[in-house]
Structure of DUF1013 domain-containing protein:
Amino acid sequence: MAKPLMAKATAVWLVDNTTLSFKQIADFCELHELEVQGIADGDVAAGVKGFDPIANNQLTQDEIDKAEADPLHKLKLKFNPAASGEEKRRGPRYTPLSKRQDRPNSILWLVKFHPELADAQIAKLVGTTKPTIQSIRERTHWNIANMQPIDPVALGLCKQSELDAAVQKAAAKKAKEGEAIDDDERRKLLSTEQSLEGEAEPRIPTAIEGLETFSLGGDDTEKEEKIDADSFFNLPDSSDDDEDDDEQA
């Protein structure tokens, strides 16, 4: 059932101006029955001005009369053609003013660690625009030098489940298109829970890649050659030099 505008203020008006039960008001305004009872006792919504649902075209007097006569009757929101499709409106996610300065940092984090995400997915996650995402991808953003990548979940800009769903969707799209995915990209496409549960794999530094079968030690079956230090210098025998000196004398 659709929720009325200003639900709590509507509940205040119904408590003050009708004999409806707390359950009927709670069901109509999508509140807890105890919360409606708190409104009646003055413990909840103190100072809230009642919002007339009849004057604002949300209820009819006949509907209220039926509900007052039958405690089991559930109030039905009056159909308003002008509000049709209001909840389906699409647009960027609203970001509080206190967190908008951190939004570029979260975009940089998504671009760096999840490059498989489309601009539309990033825009939906953190509530931004495609030109902003493009400028950060191309590092032409005016404040790119001072930006630091920060997880949008840690900043409270999106939920972990929403990020995981977007990553899984990107993975399914890549698999459907038949693109080759290397090990690094496959790890990025895993959700946070899956990546934490996985076992750590030994990685070989790229600087010595291809030398993993190279051994500094020689084969145990080979015998080490004995190197004579004198053979490097080819020093003449000292006894031969003494004989030459005697002949010349």
